[in-house]
Amino acid sequence: MAISRFSYASMNVMDVEAAVRHYVHVVGLRETDRDADGRVYLQAADTQDHHCVILNPAKTAGVEHLGFKVSDPADLDEATAAVTAYGLPVTRVPAGAVKGQGEGVRFPLPSGQHMMLYYHADKVGYLTGMENPNPVSAHSTPGGRVTHLDHTLISAQNPGDDVKFLTEVLDFSLTEKVVDPAGNTLAAFLTCGHTMHDLAIGPGPDNHFHHMAFGMDSRTEVIHGVDLLKEKAVPALEYGITRHGIAGVTTIYFHDPSGNRNEFYNGAYLAPGAPGWVPPIVWQAEHFPRGAFYYENAVPEAFFAEVT
């Protein structure tokens, strides 16, 4: 099966217009569409597909589903058979049910969050245009200078169950993991493409969302993003700007108006692009604080306690 990448997060928000202002004027996405059910679709500068974030009007925050793109339409049938054989329910989603998107298959992970696999996405083009474009976005573009939606982290009571499903059924590769003294997986970082993680699993309650990360071209752009958070009075995690020991990336966390956590992020290493080619890096639990926050060597209590 060829799942090529994490493509979008469909998020529940309590105030859609406040969320749109946040994702346009703080994060730096562009609004690409709206639908009759009140959903708003947004995309980053350097991605051609119709959306990377969907905002759904809802009474509570959290993730509605996570979208992953496959490389061939036949992968949808293969996924349906494999997920069904594993014992999880699969729903075929008709083309157009998600605006700008073709047919998909939807199913829950063992931890309860829903994934959607699909092949076709309508194209909106790059922010800089598709004919004789400038190499960089205009400096008047609002928000952080994010290039793409990079990855997401969800929470699970038993992360090992999600790892088993994702690696054995959907051909994800495990790049790094955190284990307790008995060898149980406490956190895991998995890729379906060339980045070190498309989907990560952290400790916490089932069926909850931890964060989605927006990629930037350089550490300088992350610093610019922190300046923007201060200017816009957007509360950020007390650690930041900082570096993760896991993946070594530069990072800052903050929240949208409904409480869904966002990340500005730069510097992950590349993955080999095929399942099982290299063994995962293993972190023992006592070293996890350094892996999570390399400079501080400690994990704020709120970091895993606050999920939506």
UniProtKB/TrEMBL annotation:
Cofactor needs: Fe(2+)
Keywords of the record: Aromatic hydrocarbons catabolism, Dioxygenase, Iron, Metal-binding, Oxidoreductase, Repeat
Record flagged with keyword Iron: yes
Recorded GO MF terms: dioxygenase activity; ferrous iron binding
Superkingdom of origin organism: Bacteria
Matching PROSITE patterns: EXTRADIOL_DIOXYGENAS, VOC
Domain VOC: residue ranges: 5-120, 148-267
Subunit structure: Homotetramer.
Similarity annotation: Belongs to the extradiol ring-cleavage dioxygenase family.
Protein name: VOC domain-containing protein
Lineage of producing organism: Bacteria, Pseudomonadati, Pseudomonadota, Gammaproteobacteria, Immundisolibacterales
